[in-house]
Design a protein that fits this description.
Layout: H1 2-17, H2 22-29, H3 33-57, H4 60-86, H5 88-104, H6 110-123, H7 181-184, H8 193-203, H9 205-216
Helix pairs in contact: 1-3, 3-4
Length: 219
């Protein structure tokens, strides 16, 4: 219920804080972290409610519902894991579409903006394939027709941190898309998040396996 409440609160805050176009709302709905929180919270509440009340009242129907839904969720997780392992290229393409939408709607959804900034800071990357992917965004688009003051820029989360910097320079990525890879490397992390994510998973296989096992065993 707490997860649902947080998701609803985040969604309401965004709805009252800005006016979005219908197309933008539709495109960002499935990748909206607030919506994902609401869906996960509702599913968790339904499963645990059936198990708790079913056991408390000794209701066979609720216990069967609990058992079936938990088994279904477990098998779904297992299937996704197996498909992600054996169909890595397709998984990468699907994640690429998700990130592309997040880049396109970077300025339209505060949650997506914070999520992309967090990913880029943690993995020290920029864009999906490389830093020029930010041209997908209306504000950062690098065409000459773009009147935005952020034309050819990248978000500050792509920038390499300056030692001892107390105030973040949000304009550090301005004009970076016009530079070559080696030149851009002096200011930002030019590598794409796709390659960085693969390298992280390969170097943390034990941790990934332990997390998967930690989720699977209690279920």
């Amino acid at each position: 219920m707490l997860i649902v409440a947080i998701g609803v609160y985040a969604k309401v805050q965004k709805a009252t804080g800005a006016v979005s176009l219908p197309d933008t709302v539709r495109d960002t709905f499935l990748i909206d972290p607030a919506v994902i929180l609401i869906v996960v919270g509702v599913v968790m509440f339904f499963i645990t409610f059936c198990g708790c009340i079913g056991a408390l009242r000794e209701n066979i129907r609720l216990l069967k519902t609990f058992s079936f839904t938990l088994t279904f969720v477990f098998l779904t997780q297992l299937a996704i894991s197996i498909m992600g392992f054996f169909y890595s290229d397709q998984t990468r393409d699907a994640l690429g579409k998700f990130v592309k939408k997040a880049i396109v709607h970077y300025r339209d959804d505060l949650d997506l903006q914070n999520l992309m900034d967090y990913i880029q800071k943690e993995f020290k990357c920029c864009g999906w394939n490389n830093y020029t992917d930010w041209s997908w965004n209306l504000y950062f688009n690098c065409t000459h027709e773009n009147p935005s003051t952020e034309r050819c820029a990248v978000p500050y989360s792509c920038c390499t941190p300056v030692p001892g910097e107390t105030v973040v320079n949000t304009m550090c990525g301005f004009g970076v898309q016009t530079q070559k890879y080696l030149e851009a490397n002096k200011l930002i992390f030019p590598a794409g998040c796709a390659d960085k994510a693969v390298l992280w998973i390969e170097s943390h296989l034990l941790l990934v396996g332990a997390l998967a096992l930690g989720l699977a065993l209690p279920q």
